[in-house]
Amino acid sequence: MSSVALLITLLAIVTALAALAERVRIASPIVLVLAGIAISLIPGLPSVVLRPDIVILVFLPPLIYSAAWNTSWADFKANFRPIMLLALGLVLFSTVGVAWVVHTFVPGFSWPLAFVMGATVSTTDPIAGTSIIKQMGLPRRVVIILEAESLVNDATGLIVYRYAVAAVTTGQFVLIEAGEQFFVVVLGGILIGLALAWVVKSIHQLTDDTPVVETTLTFLTPFAGYLIAEEWHVSGVLAVLSAGLFLTLRSSEFLSRQAHLQTINVWNVVTFLLNSIVFVLMGLQLRRILLTTSGYSPSKLLLYGALVSLAVILSRFIWVFLASYLPRLVVNRTAKSGLLFNRKLNTVIGWTGMRGVLSLATALALPLTLRNGSPFPQRDLIIFFTYCVIFSTLVLQGLALPYLIRWLNITPDQRAKQEEINLRIQLASMAIEHLEANYSLSEEVSDEALALLKHKYETRIDRLRLHQNGRRANANASEVRETMRIQLEIIRVERELATRLRREGQKDDEVLRTILYELDLEESRLLLETMR
């Protein structure tokens, strides 16, 4: 099968599977991985090779950038301590914990090899975890911490992995030197990302409100940041992350409104396709991995794979609870010194350590030989154990997560929604005050026009108050609901007429396309205002 045919087939498969996942109410990453595994086991089908360089260069930068773009810098800064405890402390703790288990219980794993194994599975997946936890109705702070952890710990894990592999291939490792290099790699990646973001911002300001050019620039940015940083031997992931955080914070200064809307829509599609393809590809690797380990005892492979997976899961639980309670016990600090001060939420955070394609890519990227030409020891086992960890944390823990949340009786967090409603009401009220203060006595605007504008914002406030605190807020609630229903009905009637005229060719197609686009925007705006 040609590359083009394979790509088209994958796109068709992931689209159908995404629709299936929505219907069966299972997180799409789980469905996609399971489908990939099932397809890989069909006899006679050609194997699909997941090239680690393609994953790290083609998939990782845009997905990291997209996640960073949708991350609030204010939330990131407010939760900096718990994020770092997970993204830095937990990565190192997991690496050491898994290395100890592998070195102690799995024959043939020296300490350097054990640390390679630990570093390979030390980071959570920025795609899988976010896709799953966002559907669970968890408190907003938990989601913020988990999303940010998965972004930052990729950089930490890749750096630790790089030093562990170097120790195996060269036979040398100096802790002080590695610590100094770690600092340079981290700081260098951040500085390159910020410098690139400043350049991109300046270029955006010169594009003269050209949405297509502005959207294209957003696609070039993550690849440029990653390649430049890696060329300078610093963290490409941190370069992309810092550039994304800076640009999303300043986006209102350089992105036109039309470009902003277009960028959101285009990136949503691209992110969906990249996420979906990479999870199917991950599932498709099972057959190749099983073939490479055919010389080992199946029972021992499963036993060791389960042992490594258990070490990964337990190390996360241990660290989460230690990081939550030890600071208060040792130095009598407040709860903010740790992660969270709720045992139920700590349990959920401990459970949501999904591993994914980055772990598999780093395992597959292990060199085939050492510097002396001998084969890289235990390479096949490291890849197999990594796949076991991915299956255990992504599929098994992912499927169990909704039941765990239900068992812990964690209710959906409504504060963010209420905060949004309150802010929308505040903005609409300020708009009315502005109209009254500046135009109530003005001869430039007629009384009829002023009344029409005020009525628009008053109606918007009424719509929003219907949802405030989950109950009707005024005596006109039924009237407002009926008005909203009629407005939506009128838009649909207009759309049907415009569609029929376009189909019959009675009016200019370009004009009708513009009208249909405006109707779509109007309906979207109305539905957004009503919070439906």
From TrEMBL:
Membrane spanning stretches: 31-50, 83-103, 154-176, 182-200, 235-252, 264-282, 302-327, 348-370, 382-405
Record GO biological process: regulation of intracellular pH; sodium ion import across plasma membrane
Signal peptide (from-to): none
Assigned GO CC terms: plasma membrane
Keyword Transport: yes
Gene3D superfamilies with a match to the protein in the record: 6.10.140.1330
Membrane topology: Multi-pass membrane protein
Stored InterPro entries: Cation/H_exchanger_CPA1 (IPR018422), Cation/H_exchanger_CPA1_bac (IPR004705), Cation/H_exchanger_TM (IPR006153)
Single GO MF descriptor: potassium:proton antiporter activity
The keyword Transport is annotated on this UniProt entry: yes
Pfam families according to UniProt: Na_H_Exchanger
Keyword terms, alphabetized: Antiport, Cell membrane, Ion transport, Membrane, Sodium, Sodium transport, Transmembrane, Transmembrane helix, Transport
UniProt-annotated location(s): Cell membrane
Cation/H+ exchanger transmembrane domain boundaries: 13-406
Major location (coarse): membrane
NCBIfam families listed in its UniProt record: a_cpa1 (TIGR00831)
Recorded family membership: Belongs to the monovalent cation:proton antiporter 1 (CPA1) transporter (TC 2.A.36) family.
Function: Na(+)/H(+) antiporter that extrudes sodium in exchange for external protons.
PANTHER family linked: SODIUM/HYDROGEN EXCHANGER (PTHR10110), SODIUM_HYDROGEN EXCHANGER 7 (PTHR10110:SF86)
Protein name: Na+/H+ antiporter
